[in-house]
Amino acid sequence: MEYLQCTDKLYEYSNWRSNLINTIETYQDWRKRYNLEETHSAITLANILQGLAQDRVTLAFVAEFSRGKTELINALFFAETGVRLLPSSPGRTTMCPAELFFDEDGGSYIRLIEIETRSEATAFVELKQDIERWTQIDLDCDNPKQMQTAFQELVAVKRVSKIPPSTWGCSMKKKRLSKVS
User: Where are the beta strands (DSSP E) in the chain?
Assistant: First the structure.
């Protein structure tokens, strides 16, 4: 039931935002009709509309490896499909940033960035803005099997040259467990 409540709240927010945009546009039309427009407030209203149009809800899931992030995402957003959409199994973690987008107007898709970017000195914020560096995989939200296949790209194996794992941001040190008596 929590899933439905979360989704309902997101839809409520989306509807509120759409209604607010319509109300502001109606107000702008009214001001034009009665010659009540002045530059400063017109610019302010235009900026508000632009901000509302670009507004997105962003959820970030951050934790150490194998701590249940994928299972949480599956439970929150995909429980009603009856299919585990995001792949999750022991030892299979995503080493690279991945973004999942749901947009009723612009389409739904996954964006992935290549593992090679981990060895660069480029800040992630810069990589995020460089859309050419990302791979986009479109999602059909009405087809759970297509989505499940697309999400397999999150755990795809890519062979890379033999260089120290630390170059890729990986630690190969094994933790020793001490025996407790």
Answer: 98-101, 108-113, 134-139
